[in-house]
Amino acid sequence: MTDRPSTTKGRRPRTRLRRRVSGAIALALALGTVGVAYATVAAAATPKAQVASNAPSEDPVEIRKGRQLFEQGCITCHGRNLQGVQDRGPSLIGVGEAAVYFQVATGRMPVARQEAQVERKEPYYDEAETLQIAAYVQSVGGGAEIPTGNLRGSDENLAEGGELFRLNCASCHNFAGRGGALSAGKYAPPMDQANDLTIWTAMLTGPQNMPVFGDNQLTEEQKQAITNYVQTLKEQGDPGGAPIGRMGPVPEGLVAWVVGIGAIMLMILWIGAKS
Length: 275
Ligand code: HEC
Ligand code: HEC
What we know:
Cytochrome Bc1 Complex, Chain D, domain 2, 10 helices, binds heme C
């Protein structure tokens, strides 16, 4: 009974200590929550795999519209029946809607004049028109289809995608996808403007000096992995912040959390030591 504090004076230090300790715990908890919340939000904010809704159309109306567009913009070089025109443009029979999508969506077609290599530029047609022309070309000659569905697979395929990219693509497009020169004034372009569908249709159709990567060369899962890798590499290449292991926003949040809480802990200790 004697150890029971009889005066407020004797009780104060312990209460103050307890208050300070519980304050620190509360602060740590709050910081922990903020850190975890930040990491979660940041992870959720990274774009999910693009799910292409550009299902190729077999609707006769769309095909007819595509034919009209083709006759206005493409016929002089590719011919009335897609058979091609000598010294102007190759036959499009059997190139497939995937080739049309690649060429038109990246602005390469229609081309104004012959150069060593047709440049990527601002697309002349909008997405709907592009798909109409694609549907028309497909209806005449068949060929590689525009892929639909999940074009990136799951997040577990990143390492495999990197491996496959270095094996199959890096020799021309550079390890970081920045592109590179080829012989005779030609070049493999950088990947920075390519969307998921451009990457897929490039692989499926092999424009110019690029080889075709059909299902025998790269399975669907492997194409998903490569696409996921290229796009993830890009998304991480530009946003501010340090490239912590190039592993995405979660380690960033972790580092911010660890450094931040470390600093605050030091401050708490310092304040505690002072009083
Ligand atoms: C001024 C002539 C010209 C016009 C107009 C033109 N093209 Fe082309 N097109 C070419 C040439 C030349 C090539 C070959 C380019 C190359 O691979 O270097 C080509 C290639 C293509 C290819 C790739 C063929 C393959 O084997 O993969 C597609 C698809 C294509 N054009 C579609 C179109 C469409 C669709 C239009 C109309 C919107 C169009 N082009 C307008 C000249 C033209
Ligand atoms: C032999 C060299 C070579 C290899 C290997 C190669 N490419 Fe290409 N790639 C090219 C060339 C050349 C072009 C430009 C074609 C054109 O302009 O018509 C191109 C264009 C592209 C484009 C279009 C970029 C844009 O936005 O304009 C993408 C995407 C692409 N390649 C992806 C790949 C992927 C993925 C691989 C590996 C699976 C690969 N390439 C392998 C040479 C290559």
